[in-house]
Write a structure and sequence with these properties.
- Keywords: TPR repeat.
- This is Tetratricopeptide repeat protein.
- The structure is a single chain.
- The protein has a domain of 50 residues.
- It is an all-alpha fold.
- Strand 1 and strand 2 form a beta hairpin.
- A two-stranded antiparallel ribbon has the order 1-2.
């Protein structure tokens, strides 16, 4: 046996001191090919210092062997020595047999720095030089996947699978393609690949994507089953709870939907969207007290979330809590893009508080947005009639009878104004 083989044997047995002795002997006595293989093996086992020493020794002897530079660059990247890695890679010129490999290593380096466009250009250059190399196609697909450029990733994964490659670097390409299709909104194609994967072989992420895809395809019973399996195996996979709640709500299983959302809040209590969703379901269950508590919690977590403000404002209006609604909603009108629903709610509030000047201002602001909403139009008609504004009343009546043509009272009122 060579010293390198003996060193690896000692390492496998866990005899680190004996490994160090045999490694030192290998550096002095083994031939260069054996040393190079030892360097590769040690790198794969995570012994970066020992691997680097071998490559540095060989590079001094073979300064034109650029493969050694790319290997040293790989080690430097693993050690977060990015400048050192680039120094090695920049020494590899386009005519070198190792140039494509250097581009791959550089792409990896730039990706770790989140310089995705630079990484993409390196990989595109490599693919142009070696168009049939599956590792390059895979690296480019994975980059696009990381960048969430799923429509670019899909044809690359398809090329690999069509060519018979279904796994690379321990990545299941069928899974990847299914998830890419799902994220691109192509759910029919996605499920064709995702359902090929046995449930027990799915990672949590893939199970989530599969359940999500079934939900988008309105196969809610399957989606619910998969979301619940994921919850049972990993209760802290917080992304599942909003969609499980949604699926159960769509199946009109409201008590179960609320329970699922409450379980989600147990593990993700700082998710304001989850509080709002739970409040929505509580409202459908006619538990306004619980809904209010959840809405206030969501609003407390994110005061800028206008959805929470509107839901809470709607509840106050429904319960005729005029002062509380005014206090809640008025500060949000300072925003130039204030939601029109707040103007509507404040118009109703001001009218009940007999602040008719404010009510007129709010109705005027809300009116352009709700000309097809009978629940808005009818009270507004009576308000403007009291204001004596016939032109606005006629305009609102004309809009109303288009939406509710069988309302005889409003039709007669319109005839009276037109006459």
């Amino acid at each position: 046996m060579s010293y390198a083989e003996t060193a690896l044997d000692e390492l496998e047995k866990g005899q680190l001191e004996d490994f160090k002795k045999q490694y030192a002997l290998a550096l002095r006595h083994d031939d260069d090919d054996t040393l190079f293989s030892l360097g590769e093996e040690l790198y794969s086992l995570g012994f970066l210092n020992q691997s680097r020493r071998i490559y540095e020794k060989l590079l001094k002897k073979y300064p034109d062997e650029d493969e050694l530079r790319t290997n040293l660059a790989d080690i430097a990247i693993d050690e977060d020595k990015n400048d050192e890695a680039l120094e090695y890679l920049n020494q590899v010129q386009p005519g070198s047999p190792a140039y494509v490999e250097s581009l791959m290593v550089a792409a990896d380096l730039y990706q770790t720095q989140e310089l995705f466009e630079v990484s993409e250009q390196k990989l595109l250059t490599a693919k142009k030089l070696a168009p049939d190399e599956p590792v390059i196609t895979f690296a480019l697909a994975e980059l696009y996947f990381t960048m969430r450029e799923f429509r670019k990733a899909i044809p690359l994964y398809l090329d690999l699978i069509t060519a018979g490659t279904t796994e690379l670097s321990r990545v299941n390409l069928v899974e990847r393609l299914g998830v890419a299709y799902a994220n691109a909104g192509r759910f029919e194609q996605a499920i064709g690949y995702l359902k090929q994967i046995h449930t027990g072989d799915m990672t949590p992420d893939v199970k989530f994507e599969t359940a999500f895809t079934y939900l988008q395809l309105k196969e809610r019973s399957t989606a619910i089953r998969l979301f619940e399996e994921l919850k049972d195996s990993d209760a802290h996979y917080t992304s599942l709870y909003p969609y499980l709640g949604q699926a159960l709500e769509q199946e009109n299983r409201l008590d179960e939907a609320l329970k699922a959302l409450q379980e989600g809040l147990g593990v993700d209590q700082y998710n304001e969207k989850l509080w709002l969703q739970a409040a929505h379901v509580a409202t459908k269950l006619d538990d306004e007290e619980l809904a209010e508590r959840y809405l206030k919690k969501g609003h407390e977590l994110d005061a800028d979330d206008i959805a929470a403000v509107i839901q809470l404002s709607n509840l106050y209006v429904k319960q005729e809590r005029w002062a509380e609604n005014a206090e809640l909603a008025k500060p949000y009108l300072a925003n130039e893009d204030a939601d029109p629903q707040l103007y509507w709610n404040l118009a109703v509030t001001a009218n009940h508080q007999e602040d008719f000047v404010a009510a007129r201002k709010y109705y005027d602001a809300a009116r352009p947005f709700f000309m097809d909403q009978p629940d808005f139009l009818k009270p507004a008609i009576y308000f403007y009639r009291e204001e004596g504004d016939s032109d606005v009343v006629v305009n609102l009546l004309q809009a109303y009878v288009k939406v509710v043509p069988d309302d005889a009272e409003m039709a007669l009122m319109l005839e009276g104004y037109e006459d």
